[in-house]
Amino acid sequence: MAAQRPGAHSWASQVSDEEFRLSELDLHVLGSHPEILAALGRRWRTGPSTDTVAFAAAMPAGIGALVLAPGWFRQVQGEPWLEPVDLGDRAPSTASFFFAVALVGLVVLTVLWLRRGRLRAGTEVFAVVFTLVAALVALPLMASVGVDVLGFASVTLPVWGATAAAVAVLGAFTQASAGRRAGDAQDFHITGPADLERAHALVAALPPRKVKGLAAERTRAVGRLRERGMITAGQAAAVEALPIGSSITLDS
Question: Over the stretch 17-48, which tens digit does the pLDDT of each residue have?
C-alpha cells in the first residue's frame, strides 16, 4: 500500500510563497497513485531533505575550524581555553580530516545540483559559503600554531582544497544555475519525461467515483490557493480547464 501523503488541499493550505509552483498541483492531487506519478515522470521524494543534506555538508568545515580555536587562544593568551576540547598538537591533523570530509560534502552538493538540472537551493548556497568562510578562518588559525600554511604543508592541503572547491562550487551555483529550486525539487524527484497521454489514460481507467473525488480535491485546492492569494482567477480557471495531470505543463 502506498504511503499516505498530505492531499492537494493540505498542500495548498501550507505551501510557502517561495516553494509554490502551480505546476505541482496535480502531483499532489494524484499523490496516492504512484503509477500515475510515474507516467508523469515523478515520484515522491524519500530520504533526507535538501536542508538536512546541506546542514550535514556544512558541519565538518565548522568543526574543523573550531578545533583549531583553542590552540590559537593558547598561543595568543598563554593559557588554555576550552581545555577539554583542546587537542594540542593533534588539532591541525584533526582539522585536516574534517576539511577532507567537507570536500566530500561539496562534491555531494554539486552532484545533487547537477541531478536537479542545475537548480540551486538557498540552503545549499549557504552551506558552500559557510564552508568557504570556515576554511578561510582555519588557514590563519593553523598558521598561528606553527603550521606552514603558505608552504602548503600536507596537513593544510584539505583546507586549501576545500577553499578552492567552495569558490568553484559557489561560482557554479551563482553563475551557471538554471534557476532557484522550487516545487518539484522539494516534494518530488523527477524520474524522466512526462507521458501525458499515458497519465490521462490511467486517470480515465480509475473508477468514475474516484475520478470525481480527484476533481473535487483539485477544485478545493484551487479554491484554497485563491483564498490565500497565491493564484489569480485567470490561473484558477486555466488549471481547472486542464485534464487532471496536466498542471505540470504550467510554467508557474
Answer: 767 888 889 999 998 899 999 999 888 877 67
Alpha helices in the chain (DSSP H): 8-14, 25-29, 34-39, 50-77, 91-115, 122-144, 157-175, 184-187, 196-204, 208-227, 233-240
The residue type of 247 is: S
Cβ(118)–Cβ(178) below 8 Å: yes
| Grid cell in block for residue 222 | 484551487
Contacts of 159 (CB under 8 A, 6+ apart): 64, 95, 96, 99, 135, 138, 139, 142
Beta partners for 155?
none
User: Could you tell me which of 158, 167, 173, 49 has the C-alpha nearest to residue 101?
Assistant: 158
Q: How far apart are CA 208 and CA 244, in angstroms?
A: 13
Q: Which helix (H) or strand (E) holds 188?
A: strand 188-190
| Max CA pair span of the chain | 80
User: Residue 188 pairs with which residues in a beta bridge?
Assistant: 44
Backbone angles phi, psi at 225, to 5 degrees: -65, -40
**Sign of the torsion angle spanned by Cα atoms 65, 67, 70, 71:** negative
Condensed to tens digits (0 to 9), the pLDDT of residues 124-162 reads 899 999 999 999 999 988 888 788 989 999 999 999 999
Could you give phi then psi for residue 119, rounded to 5 degrees? -95, 120
d(CA 178, CA 163): 24
Predicted TM-score (pTM) of this structure: 0.59
Q: Residue 44: phi, psi to the nearest 5?
A: -60, 140
Pick from 23, 28, 55, 24: which is nearest to 217 by CA? 28
For cell 537551493, the residue is 121
